[in-house]
Amino acid sequence: MLVQYLDPDGMIENTPYHHVAVGTGTRFVHVAGQVAHMPAGEPVPTDLASQVSQALRNVHRGLVAAGAQFSDVVRLTVYVTEWETSQMGEFMAGVEAVAPEIGLQLPMPPASLIAVVQLFEPGVLVEIEATALL
After folding, report:
1. How many Å apart are CA 66 and CA 49, to the nearest integer?
2. Which Pfam families does this entry report, sorted A to Z (predicted)?
3. For residue 107, which of 2, 3, 1, 6 has the smallest C-alpha distance?
4. Domain holding 21: CATH number?
5. Domain of 78, in residue numbers
6. CA dist., res. 133 & res. 67, Å (int)
7. N or C: which end of the chain has fewer CB within 10 A?
8. Are 71 and 61 in contact (CB under 8 A)?
9. What is the 3-state secondary structure (H, E, C) of 32-75?
10. What is the DSSP secondary-structure string of 90-128?
11. How many CA atoms lie within 13 A of 65 on its CB side?
12. How many domains does the chain have?
């Protein structure tokens, strides 16, 4: 096992992610921030859940191209525009909708969700980066 996930006692319980990842590989894979661009150029979905799902699909594409899977991921960083804590249900609905398809185990690898004013393109609500170890 290249990546071991831990949730030490005393850290917040019942989070949708693990608190710690310990990797023992020799190659790092960094997937640049991925947004909900569609593979055939269709319009970007307008709702948060759909954008989360598609951004994760695009992260998965990058991982696979490098010979990795979500089980190799040691860190996710998520940037969300116009974030409010009331959106966590919609955010997690997007994660859960795509998780089986892309092999993303829940809870997710260690992750940060960072609220930002805007991303590089109008209408983009979420951008997701991944770091994996092979």
Report:
1. 26
2. Ribonuc_L-PSP
3. 6
4. 3.30.1330.40
5. 3-133
6. 10
7. N
8. no
9. EEECCCCCCCCCCCCCHHHHHHHHHHHHHHHHHHCCCCHHHEEE
10. HHHHHHHHHHHHHT--SSBSSEEEEEES--SSTT--EEE
11. 10
12. 1
Q: How far, in Å, are 1, 105, 113 from residue 109 at the CA level?
A: 14, 8, 12
Q: Please count the CA atoms within 13 angstroms of the CA of 56 that sit on its side-chain side.
A: 28
Amino acid at 63: L
Q: Do the Cβ atoms of 18 and 6 come closer than 8 Å? A: yes
Tokens of 87: 């959106």
What's the pLDDT at 36?
Answer: 96
Question: pLDDT truncated to tens, each residue of the chain (134 aa)?
Answer: 689 999 999 999 999 999 999 988 899 999 999 999 998 888 899 999 999 999 999 999 999 999 999 999 999 999 999 999 999 999 999 999 999 999 999 999 999 999 999 999 999 999 999 999 99
- Give CA–CA dist 112/36, Å, rounded: 18
Site of tokens 């969300």: 80
